[in-house]
Every structure is written in structure tokens, then in C-alpha cells.
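ok trying this again, last paste got cut off
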Amino acid sequence: MTKKTEGGNTAAAVAKLANKLRDMREKIDKLDQHILKLVNERAGIAAEIGRLKNDTSAEPFAPAREEEVLENVLEQNKGPLDPTTIRAIFREIISGSRSLQKVLQVAYLGPEYSFSHLAAIERFGQSVKLVQVGSIAAVFEEVNRAHIDFGVVPLENSTDGRVADTLDMFLRMPQLIVCAEIRLRIHHNLMAACDQEMIRRVYSKPQALSQCRNWLSKNVPQATLHQVASTAVAAELAQREPGAAAVASRQAAVRYGLRILFADIEDSPYNETRFAVIGHQRCGKTGNDKTALMFRVSHAPGKLVDALDVFKQSKINLTWIESFPAKTPKPEYVFFVDFEGHIDDSKVAKTIESLKKTRKRGTLSPTRKRGLKAFLACASG
């Protein structure tokens, strides 16, 4: 009798739970329908905005406005979904709405699931045509020839500093500007189709190997390190070659069917790469902007100090400074700097004019055909 009662109680509890789950799922279904209706209403308004932009020849990609939308929803988010999830959801809503105006073409250093590919998705979402090319130089060439709308290139890494190929291409093509900035946390993974003790070669991009050099020396000392064009190429090689491993993204492991033997092997837990979105389009203010300059100084004592003193006098905070060999017969350097403020801010405009005047007095010398190159980088959070 007791067992029967207990069995009856259990059955009643299961039935009650099933009814409760059914009610909650019905609520989710209704909410989903309401969300779908609202998302499509939003898309309709976005499409109308697109038609107005077409009438005024305005560009469909407005990073300042997109950042404003994301910041607004993140400020209102009370959980339980975390900011990363909310940002990803609205990034795709924005991407899909933008595609109603125009499907942008964006070039990146491929293959798929390289970190440049992931950065392009982070900035533009999935509703664009992502075009993979074989080198950073090719990204610049495709943008310069207007074959595509924008390109995504790595600018600097928090562990390794500047990306020389990108700076070199800015020297070669000073007509291109930075339209937006992407900051991507970089997590490296050791992946292979074999066990750890069988690894004899580790492939990856030079920067990725450098960012994991200490971990690799301790954990796979028997393996030789081999540099390739991208982390995704490394994953492809690890798939094909016996005894090979790759340092690459988690997404690359999924794409090429590799086992992640060790996750997050980067030496610095704060490893981050800053990417630039390059194009011909100047973008509006976000309220969290930076302007970048490229200039060369005369090869004489104190000339760089004179140029930098202009920023001090204007009370403008420099956020990055990098030197790069100039393409001249003399051993001279080009300096890349970026600093807080939009190029259209009055303080920034006055600072740039002061630098131009400094050049006329002999401190700055020409960089190719242009002595002072300014390009905008909108911070993207």
C-alpha cells in the first residue's frame, strides 16, 4: 500500500511538472512571436532609413550610430543574459538590417576562422559578403581598387606590438583611412588529430607562436615551430599531416575537425589584438573616438620632441606611438600616433593645423607625397 501511494505521488508530481513546463514553453513561444514581430518592425524602419540614405547618397555603414545602438541596449540590460550575449544578438540584428540597404563586401586575411575573419564577424555580423584573401597587402589592394567596400587588418597586439605588414601598407597607400576599430580578445588553442606526445611540428602565424612561446617550450619541447600565413592555414595543415598540431582559434578546430588538446595557451591572460577597418569612408563621431596620424620628422636632434610637444600643448592624450622605417635612401623613420578625439573636434583640428605649421618650420618632412596623413579610428568598445 505504501509503495502504491508513493508511486501515485510520484506520478502526480511528474504530471504537475509536465504541465508547468508546457505552460512555460507556451509563454516562450508567444514571446518568440512577439520578438519576431518587433525585430521585423525594426527592420522595416531600418529599410526606410536606407531609402532616405539613398536619396542623400549617404553610406549604409555608420559605425558611430551602430556603436550608439549597442551602448544603449547594454546600458539597459539588467540580465540574466550577459553583455557579450546581448551584444552578439544586436550585432546580428544590426547586420541584417544593414543588408536591407546594401550587402557590404568585406575583405580579410583568410582562410575562414582566422582571427581576422573572427574580427570581421565581430564588427559587421554575418549579413555581409566576407571575402578571404591571402595577405594583408591583398586586403589593402582590394579596398584601394574599390573591388570591395571595407577591409579588416590587424594593427597591433597587446603582447607583440605593431603588425609591420599593416603599417607598411599605410605607407604605400596613404589615401586609405581607418573607418572603425575592433578590439578582439585572442585565445589560442593547441589542436591536433593526434595525442600530445606524438606532436613533432606546430604550425601557426608568427604572432600567434610568439604569443604562446613560453607555453609551447614547456609543454611541447619535442616539436619544431613553423610559421604560416594564418592560424586557419595552420589548422588545415594539422588536419592533413601526421604528427602536426596548430595554434589557432576554437572555431578553426571545429571547422577542420581537430581535437583541442589545450585551451587558452596564450602567455598573457590579457592578450588582445586591435584591428582596423580600412576604406575610403570617413565616419561620424561616437563620443569615444580616436584620430591617428602618420608623419615623418627631420633626422635631427629634438625634432620628434618638437612634434610631440604640439600634443602636450593642446592637452591631447596620446594612446599609441609607433615608429617604422621610411622608404627613403636615408635612415629615417615614419611615426604613427593615435590620440583621443575625433578629427572634426575643434581641439583635434587645431592640433593638426599646429603640426602642419611645425612642418613648414622644418620639423616635419614629407611622407611620400603627403607630409601629414590623418585618418580616423572610431573606437568600437
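PB: full thing came through this time. The CA atoms of residues 77 and 194 lie 44 Å apart.
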